[in-house]
Structures are given as C-alpha cells and as structure tokens.
Amino acid sequence: MVDITETVEILPKEASSKVKKSKGNFNIGIPKEIDDQERRVLLTPEAVRLLTNNGLRVVVESEAGKQSKFTDQEYSDAGAKVVYSSKEAFETEVILKVEPPTIEEIQHMLPGSCLISALQIGRQNADYIHALNAKRITAVSFENLEDKVGGMPVVRAMSEIAGSTVMLIASEYLSSVNEGKGLIMGGITGVPPTQVVIIGAGTVAEYAARTALGLGANIKVFDNHIYKLRRVKQLLGQQVFTSTIDNITLAQALREADVVIGALRAEKGRNKIVVTEEMVAAMMPGSVVIDVSIDQGGCIETAQMTSHSKPTYLKHDIIHYCVPNIASRVSRTASVALSNIFTPILLQMSDLKGAEEMIFNYKWFMKGVYTYRGSLTNAHLARKFLMTHKELQLLLAARY
C-alpha cells in the first residue's frame, strides 16, 4: 500500500465552476484494489463525469482504473480528484470497492460512513465484522443487493460475464498445449462434438449453455428446480438434455463429459456439494472441471480456490479451474457493467442526501445491508460467525 504524506492532485481540465450543485452533495471514494487478482473498478470516467456534474465529489486513488485501461487523466478530466494516498480515498462518506476492504483499510474509514463492496462470505471471519462495527460502518454487499423488481443486478451481470467466459476458458484447457484432451470445443464434420455438463440452471448456466451450443458442443443441464430447467430450455430456444440431480444420472453424464461446469448458487448462505470426489475420479483423464461457485463454497468436492496467477491444478488426472472472480479476466467489460448499476444508485442516494435515507426508503437497497451503525444485521453471517444480530427494520423503526 502506498503511503505518501503529501497528497498530489491531478487537476481536471474543466473549471469547477461548471459543476452543478445538488441538494445531496457528498464525497465518494474509489480506492485502488490491492489484491493483485482484482482488476475491476466500480466507476468508469464517464460515470464519474455524470456524478460530478450532479454535484457529487469523487476521489479516485491513482491507478485505480489502470487494470481496466482507464487512466488517471481520464478520471481527472471527468471531474474527479485523483490522489496518491489510499487513506484519502477511504476518508469519504461513501466508499466504492470491488474486493472487501482489509482490516487495515477499514481503520482509514470515517466513523459512520457507507461501504459498498463485495462481501465474499467464504473468505470472511468475525474479525472483519467487528472491525466494521467498531467504526459504525453501514456496509452493503454486492451479492445481496436487489433491484426494484427483486432481481440481483450485480450477481446477474457478473454471472452473464462468467457464463460467457467460462466456455472459452474450458476450450483453452482442453487443448493439447495445456495438457488437456486435445479437443476443440464443439467439433467438426465427422468428429463427435464435445460433451459439456452444466450443474445449475441459473444465469451462469444459461450463458455457458449459449456459448457451448454456439461452438457446437452437446450440453446436459442439471438442477433440482424444475422451473429453472424449464426456463433454461425456453431461453435457449431449443431442446437440450435437462435432469434433476440424482447420483446415477449425474455420475453417468460425468463419466462421458469433456467439460464440467459447477454453477449452483448458494441457498440460505450455504452451498451444497453435489459432485463427489468419487464421481470426479471416474471421469476421463484430461477432462476439465470449472467450479464457478467456488467463492460461495463450491458444489464439487474436489474443488479448491485458485487464482488468476495459478488458475489450475490436477486431481485424479482432471484439470480443475477454480478462480472465484472470473469476471476480472475481462475487467473493462465488467467495470462498465458495474458502473452502469451503481451510477443510478449513487444519483438516487444523492437525491435522498445519503445512504441512511436509501435504506429507509428502498427495501431493495436494504437487502444488501449487513452491518448498520455498530450492529450485524445479516442472520446468515451471524450463524456462520456465531455472533448475535439485530433486525435492520427494527433498528430503523427505533431510529425513526
């Protein structure tokens, strides 16, 4: 982490007198991600321009957008204050971050400020929650944030990206160059198509299936929710093999599979293992297993979290790819998608004069809150970390 006592600021080209003032003016901080696996940023320069034109002050740490090919000068020209100290980016009323902050980064935050970031429950512990509560931080997680119609916009967007990308990753590791089976994803005239098994029937599965079918592969989709299987068939617009998850049918499909995609979303805060180690051991050597749900615990017993710098490992002669933030492989696309989601939310927050009023007025925003003014408000986290929690609606009722 860079620590320079004297802050250097890149001045925007446009005069600040052109910036309109709004009734809900507050500061937004965008620190640089310190995890070398994370390449996304939550606001693009164009989004910053819109926010600053509406009276919001945006503080961007130098090189926060570098991995997504956004320069400091672009942010400066958009009206942001570019600083060279992460501490200054954290000392704002609202902090936007992809990775959850470290304990050290939490110490830089202002008491009572609002954090909007991923939670990544599989990586967290009770100390993280205690650090947020000690600062009375209102923390909002991407994973639980809903929109006005009950959907999960961040999960949906990142799932679309992961689903579209995952088959390209599988194709890469099927090749002989990467010690795979030496197969092309799909097939050609006279050669049988690649066999792909997709476990789960949500957004990741839908986009993985689209890509696999487009490449010419045969797919089999498994899920325990009939309505999800029916939905996938309708969205794909063609007849594909679908089945509920039973050990016999799944085990047979895995023995014949060239690629297995684990895409089961956790329910009630916990994921369920549906592919046992015995099933993996019975697969053909050189096959590829990709567990997209590894950040929530995974649904394949042999899956262990990996990173972009070392994405794969062999177990039972099966190539395992278990990187939790697949969307970071295409960081610019992912950053634009995230920016499109959070820019309108920040403008609404500005109209209401802060995060507190957003929670009080919008239940869809309230769903993402897991700590509020010194209290843990998420029951799943409380059970996981053996902590007490308070119902957010009761805390709001007492306050108002």
TrEMBL record:
Q: Where is the signal peptide?
A: none
Name the UniProt key words of this record, in alphabetical order.
Oxidoreductase
Kindly list the organism's lineage: Bacteria, Pseudomonadati, Bacteroidota, Cytophagia, Cytophagales
Q: Which Pfam families match?
A: AlaDh_PNT_C, AlaDh_PNT_N
- At the top level, the lineage of the source is Bacteria
Record's protein name = alanine dehydrogenase
Q: Where would I find the Alanine dehydrogenase/pyridine nucleotide transhydrogenase N-terminal domain in this sequence? A: 29-162
What PANTHER family does this protein map onto?
ALANINE DEHYDROGENASE (PTHR42795:SF1)
Family per UniProt? Belongs to the AlaDH/PNT family.
Where the record annotates domain Alanine dehydrogenase/pyridine nucleotide transhydrogenase NAD(H)-binding, the positions are 174-322
Checking InterPro entries in the record gives: Ala_DH, AlaDH/PNT_N, AlaDH/PNT_NAD(H)-bd, NAD(P)-bd_dom_sf
Entry's EC annotation: 1.4.1.1
Q: Which organism is it from?
A: Belliella marina
